[in-house]
Amino acid sequence: MLVPRVAEGVHLITHAYVNCYLIEDDDGVTLVDAGLPSMWPMLRELLETLNRTPRDIRAIVLTHGHFDHVGFALRAHREWGTPVLVHREDARLAAHPYRYRPQRSRFLYPFTHPGSLPKLGRMAAAGALGVRGIAETRPLGPGSALPVPGSPTVIHTPGHTDGHCILHLPERDALLTGDALVTLDPYTGHSGAQIVASAATKSTRQALASLDAIAATGARILLPGHGDPWVRGSERAVAEAIRIGAH
Q: What predicted TM-score, i.e. pTM, was given to this entire model?
């Protein structure tokens, strides 16, 4: 297996337009987001390739509680005992990852954005419609470095969801942006640095305001929940997202 290293000690797992990341250091690994259910064997294969075992995963950190980020979290927690961390304002959502009200109806959106249909279809085929939530989570503490491998700094970026957080790895010049900023929006089919469409975002106004926190990190490498890594710096990514605006 070719290991997709996207930053120093950070590896990408991607399938059906959904990303999650493995952060390595000498103490073990941290998994950021749990993707879709069908990505479980991809995680097992990556661990084996890196000469790691499930016991090396010290935590799963969820950027937020939507179904395409909760994916296999419950399975990892039950089978491996892996703790799952999420911001307290997204704890209920992680337990019930389909129970959220976006700014606009996500069911009607594909009719006005037909380019999204192939992408949403692949997500559905990868298990997006059958995710089980996880109620046994631990709270993230924004504003401080987590005591997990990689020591990511948690930054609260509400808008996409109330408890959305990004994770900064300053020593690796990388920022895991979750869905606060993506380079592909499955709900429109559009590429480029942007916030996620109103069909899956609670408040696009708040999501745009949270872009300031992304720019303030000064990170060169941005690792989104959907789309390819962005390597042209946080300020340039935010400028493009503001130009594209809300959908």
A: 0.96
